[in-house]
Design goal:
2 domains; Rossmann fold; 282 residues; single chain; two-stranded antiparallel ribbon; six-stranded parallel β-sheet
């Protein structure tokens, strides 16, 4: 009982230290706490598993550094999966900030694995114009992007050989904080399989597209990235963040329980709980 009374009236500074500790440890070393993998995430994984070595996909990075916490784990995990499958990646961006994120992601994952730029992957850079630009790109990628991100003629890249329209790739995968239906309107009629990765707030708006089959798979927020890391058996930053969140919630719940139990014990035995982490008898 004394231990419970102490836990219920522990100094708040100790609580802050404990909370900092349980949040920091999993961020430094992911624990891989079990989380359920949604059907939507499994659909993304299964769709990419259908791809064969040498297939080509478009990757659209439409997010800013402010959304890296929610979308980067998705982009990293899917790019690693494509690398594992031997798929060739063609990156395109319709937001200027996304171009730098795409460049970092591809060079870090594909370049870091020794893959050859222009043969195994390429980056066509930023294309302004929103949905109009998306439509022009999917109908004729090389005309819409005559040069890549580095100024090299796109038509000279081996990976772009025979790339006349969206039908010449096996999937379109986009990560976004904004548009959601635009790619479905522009690429859907060509029969290109589309996979989306979105921030959490956009998740519910994608339900209709998934149920109609217009989206073959969907990842939502940091949780979607964590699920994909788990299904890939490569826990990373998103899984670590989910570990920290789970442990933080657990500590919070425990001290709510301890605090309430201590309050009722003190009330039963004639003690008056007061603020400041102490209790006094009458």
């Amino acid at each position: 009982m004394k231990a419970l009374l102490w836990l219920g009236n522990v100094d708040r500074r100790i609580l802050y230290l404990l909370m900092g500790f349980v949040l920091l440890v999993p961020l430094v070393k992911p624990m891989g706490l079990p989380i359920s993998v949604s059907e939507y995430t499994e659909n993304v994984y299964n769709e990419i598993e259908k791809l064969s070595p040498g297939d080509r996909v478009f990757l659209d990075f439409n997010y800013t550094p402010g959304s890296i916490a929610e979308l980067q784990a998705q982009a990293d995990s899917i790019t690693k999966h494509l690398l594992r499958k031997g798929v060739k990646v063609i990156a395109i961006c319709f937001s200027p900030e996304g171009a730098m994120i795409a460049d970092d992601t591809l060079n870090r994952i594909y370049g870091g694995a020794g893959k050859v730029y222009g043969e195994d992957y390429c980056h066509l850079g930023y294309l302004a114009g929103g949905e109009t630009a998306q439509g022009a790109f999917i109908r004729d990628p090389l005309k819409a992007c005559p040069q890549d991100f580095y100024g090299t003629p796109s038509s000279s890249l081996p990976i772009c050989k025979g790339l006349s329209n969206g039908k010449d790739v096996q999937a379109l995968i986009y990560f976004t904080t904004g548009y959601t239906a635009e790619w479905i309107r522009q690429a859907g009629p060509l029969g290109v399989p589309i996979i989306a990765g979105v921030i959490t707030v956009l998740g519910p708006a994608q339900e209709a597209f998934v149920q109609s089959g217009q989206l073959k798979g969907l990842l939502v927020g940091m949780r979607g990235g964590a699920e994909y890391e788990i299904i890939m058996d490569e826990p990373g930053s998103a899984a670590a963040a989910m570990d920290a969140q789970s442990l933080g919630h657990l500590l919070f719940i425990l001290f709510i329980i301890f605090g309430n139990a201590s309050y009722f014990i003190q009330k039963k035995y004639g003690k008056k709980p007061v603020g400041g982490g102490r209790s006094h008898e009458y």
